[in-house]
Amino acid sequence: MSDDLRYPIGKFEFPESLSNSELESMIQQIAEAPGRLSEVVSGLQEQQLDTPYRPGGWTVRQVVHHLADSHLNSYVRFKLAVTEDEPTVKGYDETLWAELEDARTGDIGNSLQLLESLHRRWVSFLRSLGPNQLARTFHHSELGPVRVGQNVALYAWHGRHHVAHVAALRRREGWG
Predict the structure, then answer these.
(1) Which residues of the chain have pLDDT under 50?
(2) 12: how many CB neighbours lie within 10 A of its CB?
(3) pTM for the full model?
(4) Looking at the domain assignment, is residue 3 inside a domain?
């Protein structure tokens, strides 16, 4: 754990390679992310959902909606990488998406349901991939070339990262 409120579990670094057991562990983390997120936001009142997880940061509500937006985009990128020859994928301005009305004020239940369904489908897809598919790449407009297996690691971290934001806020605020 880190004392940096931005990176409570530390910054992400792409692994050079993953063993089969490491890969399965990361896929399992992706599988568990929606449930962990639901648990960490359970019982929060509207005012608490509208509290930034750190000074200058997104609100809990925005974090929940961001996870749905980000993971939906990532799922599509995985599919493109496996079905096309080194596709180029465009990044998006996450900050602007988080400032849209639906992310600032929308019911988090919609994003929690989306994540639950999306992750079931995503995990099934990831577990179906063989070594050649995991080695395929896409070209990200901001990150450069990314292997499918590396991207599994990124999104395993990403879910834990944002759940940790909310969990740390709950501890600091004494919200139980």
Answers:
(1) none
(2) 15
(3) 0.96
(4) no
